[in-house]
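WARN retry 2 of 3 for item q-0093 after timeout on previous attempt; input resubmitted unchanged.
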Amino acid sequence: MEAIFLRGKGRKIGSSIFWKEKEKQKDRTAYLREREKKAERHLPKREGKAMEGIREGNQIRGKHFRFTVLTERLLRLEYSEKDCFVDGESQMVVNRSFPPAEFHWEEGKQGEGILRTKYLRLIYKGGAFSSENLRILVSGDAGNTSALWHYGDKIESLKGTARTLDGIDGALPLGEGIVSRQLFSVLDDSKSMLYHEDKFFVREDPEAIDLYFFAYGTDYKTALKDFFHLSGDVPLLPRYTLGNWWSRYFVYSEESYLELMDRFQEENIPFQVAVIDMDWHITKVPEKYGTGWTGYSWNRELFPDPPRFLKALKDRGMECTLNVHPADGVRAFEDCYPAFAEFMGVNQKEEEPVLFDLLNEKFREGYFRFVHHPMEKDGVDFWWIDWQQGENSGMKGLDPLWMLNHYHYEDNKGENGEKRGLILSRYAGPGSHRYPIGFSGDTVISWESLDFQPYFTATASNIGYGWWSHDIGGHMWGVRDDSLFTRWVQLGVFSPIMRLHSTNNAFNGKEPWKYSRDAEAVSKNFLRLRKALVPYLYTMNYLAHVERRPLILPLYYEEKPWDGLYDYKNEYYFGTELLCAPITEKEDPVSGLGKVKAWLPEGRWVDFFTGEKLTGGRELELYRSLESIPVLAKEGTILPLDGREEGNAVDAPELMELHIFSGADGSFCLAEDEHEFADFRKEDWAFTRFSLRHESKGGSVEEVLHISPVEGNENALPKERLFLLHLRGVSFLEGLSLTYGDSELPVEVGDYLEEEDALLLSLPAWDGKEGICLRYSYDREKREAQENKLLQDRAFTLLQNAQISYDEKTRIYACLEELGKKSRAEILGAVHSRCTSESLRGALVELLSASGV
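OK item q-0093 returned
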């Protein structure tokens, strides 16, 4: 039984022992209500007229207050002495139109107003909101739990995110999110700006209170979906953003930059986005103009022909963004100054600057018209808004970063608004998810910084902020550590956005060939994998927008929450099909293995990289060499990957690899579109549905893979598509048949890849018009023998690489040679007694606890 905290006067009364006694008499909800009644008996009785509240639709309105029932679990609580209530958009809230929710409003015995829904009970005694006159009792959905909130109580949510990681070495405090173990959370929208017809406004009553009370218990998914309904959906990203980004603060020239891009292509390292930092523009300026941080004029010594340079990037399959620090406005040395200055009416003869003032509608028009649009016409795709100049916009309460993000994002949609808007900028508070992508700032290069980023990224989903872009590899300071670089790249590939970046230091480049041979090989493989993941990631992009499900979610969104589950802070779901537990600590010097403690949910899981099978419903330590991190897929998972091995293209591939994780039923629906419209248009999208049926018949296992005809816009796919199947957990076949529609066709059986435990099959070209049915079977006993051999081979590799005596290796391996003859428990006991290295012992325990067919 978990503890509960009652927030009246901040007194902690909960403990598991306390509740064991209370459970003998009544459940928690009944106990809390009885406690409330006892407290009310000691309150002075109200004299005179009872508090009045008039119900209008989904609102209760009375003297200086308004309550709005958005859902049975989401309330808006407003109080204004001036009776100034807001119905328009704010920075955080853009849509309060929800389906009707059932609720009741009544007068209580003490003259208070009581608002009831299925999930909560609000009691209000009238007057300015206070802890004495406003409280809400929340009914939970985890057994018989409940919780009580008084106005002003401190909120202890599961956190949200932060504005930036600039200069952070390790962790930093996070803001609040919308989900909590208290069963409720509160977002305060009282101070945010109002927005109408492309303009921001302050509230008529600056002292007004405007709160949103989320009472979703542990139904975190529904809370998140309703938050998106309230604050706006996550926009669709362009497909190219989901590949690799090259970024470095460094003095490149056109020649040196293109030479580097060509070197990447020669090394078969794919990049889709070129990020040009500070030195694309003039940075050394006369002192009379100030610093060179702000700049809008290409440095012609480095880039003599910008349109030529930008076209050369596009010819290599890359889009481009430029870094801007806009705080200093436009000064007289800038190329765009004459036209912009004339438009603004400033004194050009005196070289009067065009001061940055995005609140000024005329400045805003000229800022985009004269400064940004000409460079976009030359080939700049979007802007990296590197704003670091404080929070004063010239209007009280209006964050200049928020304003920059909003106007830049909207402008990037183009004149007709059909282009997908895009920026790279820092987080500016709840609602910022409407302006992707987030730049998390300049982190310190350290293991502590790496260790914080998985938790930081996953937790941001609690405030709807799903598209974070980190400086992968770390930005500044620190010391060189090839293992740290490699582990960071691995995390980056399984992050929302994969953007390598580093500061202006000749020794701090992120080119893989600048590291050890092992680090180079592994980082190259992972960068190639990121590009291959784009079909999967693009489907998750669709789900984030349409189904309101962020790419990355903490464990507690998918699992029924329990106390220990919240301890696995660095483990997260990467889309609907994968579970990630990145390694964020240095390898053990004896075993050469990195370790992470993880929770495996119920079911049977397969390691994407090694093919190792693990039974869920338990905690375990996972050990991996530098070559991989734990990325797990449930049996039955179907994972689509881009099968092209070269080039930067990330459009819908003609060759698609399907990783089919044998062992259970499963399905996946691939989403692709043709035109990448800003708003979702169903007629532009195509959906390909894959399903797997698994059946064991005595000593035989049979599986059937169905690929349904394409639904929707066939032009979103190539005219013909080839499928290369990786049958994961299958090493041989005894039965095999393939039909396209009504025709039976031959199947090409390829190699068995022992390193991933997969058998390859190639299917004939497919035009998407007919269904595909693939049937295959294999012998269970033979497969079990194969799995024992795989386990022995993996154990041999672990022992081979361990820095221990040869005799100890021989003694340990002798135990493993008994597989199939003795029980795994007996072998595990023998290994445990003979292995002196704790890390190596842990890795062998992991292997021996793996599940079979």
